[in-house]
Design brief:
Layout (H helix, E strand, L loop, with lengths): L2 E2 L14 E2 L5 E2 L14 H11 L11 H4 L17 E8 L2 E13 L2 E5 L4 E7 L2 E4 L4 E4 L7 E3 L5 E13 L2 E12 L7 E7 L3 E9 L2 E11 L6
Parallel strand pairs: 1-3
Antiparallel strand pairs: 2-5, 4-5, 4-15, 5-6, 6-7, 7-8, 8-9, 10-11, 11-12, 12-13, 13-14, 14-15
Amino acid sequence: MGSKLLKLRTGVRARWVCIRHGSAASSRLALLTRYVGAVQRLAIVSLVVVVACAEPAPPVAPSVSSKGPAISTVDVYFPLEAGKIYHYVTLENGESGMLVARVHRTDASRAELRLSNATKRFVYTPEGVAYDGGAFILKAPLDVGATWPGEHGGTTRVASVDASVTVAAGSYAACVQTIEEGGRPPGSRYTTTYCPGVGMVLLEIAAGGGEARAELKSYGAPIKID
């Protein structure tokens, strides 16, 4: 009955979370032992209601007024505009779920993804975008074959800079795809697709004989319901 947690790309101190539709029960996904969390509070319900009322938004250039001027060429692939809400659908060994996060910007060089019981913090530098105090998620230059230390202890490399992908939110082109291998747990592979003006649209994880994925269903500004 209980769904397994899908632990997504997070820093050491922050967590992505997932719940099964129609159930508050959740359990640890063994292949992602260091990244856990649970969304079982009313706050997530409120966010889901807001997102469900919005139409999926097409890719657009990031707004300077909501995120500040670009600090590096990497920013466009992880814009995190203030107030935007990201809604992902997840699938792990046949079980579906969801996760929702809202963006908060403190200034042009710092951003947060806020969930009901966790906050992920990011730093924008001339080199790229990194977890606050952690590894880079995207690092310039974004050339095919470029590498940097991955957040799971492996090596992240740029696999493509012109990837096309279709997810629940729509079809996207000119996307950057990264792959991290050689980290935790042994034999794991993290494939992430970032699209310009949007951010992360697809995450695919394979490790320990299991598979999990999260794809963007919708994103955009919240709709006020009176």
